[in-house]
Amino acid sequence: MTGIEVVLLGTGSPLPDPERAGPATLVRAGGLAILVDCGRGVLMRAAAAGSGAGALDLVLLTHLHSDHITDLGDVITTRWVTSLAPSPLRIVGPPGTREVVDAVLASLRLDIGYRVGHHDDLTWEPPVEVTEVVDGLVVDEHDVRVAVAPTDHRPVHPTNGYRIDHDGRAVVLAGDTVPCEGLDRLCAGADALVHTAILDEAIRAVPIPRLQDVCDYHSSVADAARTAARAGVGTLVLTHYVPALVPGDEERWRALAAPHFDGVVEIGPDLHTVTV
Ligand SMILES: [Zn+2]
Ligand SMILES: [Zn+2]
To answer: Which one is predicted more confidently, 34 or 200?
Structure first.
């Protein structure tokens, strides 16, 4: 495969949804399978996309909000129990990632004991390599480069956006953020931007304070569209729809991007795939 393939594994909001898994995106580039965030149901969707936990080369976490890391333990344990030899899972995330991974492993301490005690050929604990970063180049292998820059999802801080370059193409994964300099820097000259987005007009219409707070630190569809346009990105891929995107409502979302961005806007169900 040439270019970069982006599979929206989970496009859902933080609320359980029978049709949409939690936020997670699979990027395939240069033979590498890169998982960005680990929302609810990620391995079920990855299986549907033809990737198991053992096939992942890298996990990138944009931030440590629970809805983006719900199934990190599932990724770690499933890879561990299905590997015939130690196969370290590389996890890259903002500072705090080590604490989260250590806590996940601590919660699995009994399970690890059961399995190592039972299987003679399973003599190792789940091997995990954590890299905490906020800026710079974190991966450069197989003609794949992964760069990180800080995003702005305050009070959640620090948070990361990622840019994956391969074969002359580039895809940026913004995660949850408001427009910011770090994201603009990643997007400059990129081909596609995968951005989480909220329908802020729908949220603002519901007078529940905890819901109103959501608008403080997320990009609206218009914000995401303006970020894409500023950088000259050709394709804007929207995901992690809040509130849940009802089938048939795609044009309403597209219409909010249209005044700001004249490129392609991709909106889809889980497993929607875009090749750049
Ligand atoms: Zn989120
Ligand atoms: Zn978040």
So the answer is: 34
Distance CA 244, CA 20 (A): 8
Residue in 67, 152, 176, 223 annotated catalytic: 67
pTM above 0.90, yes or no: yes
Report pLDDT for 216.
Answer: 84
User: Is 270 annotated in the active site?
Assistant: no
Read off the amino acid at residue 132: E
CA atoms within 13 A on the CB side of 75: 32
Average pLDDT rounded to a whole number, residues 160-180: 97
Q: Which residue has the tokens 């044009």?
A: 251
At 211 the pLDDT is 84
Instruction: Confirm if 240 and 176 have CB atoms less than 8 A apart.
Output: yes
Q: How far is the CA of 122 from the centre of ligand 2 (A)?
A: 36
Q: Helices 72-82 and 97-107 meet at what angle, rounded to 10?
A: 60
| Distance from residue 71's CA to the centre of ligand 2 (Å) | 15
All domains in the chain, ordered by first residue: 4-260 (3.60.15.10)
Find the 63 Cα to ligand 2 centroid distance in Å: 7
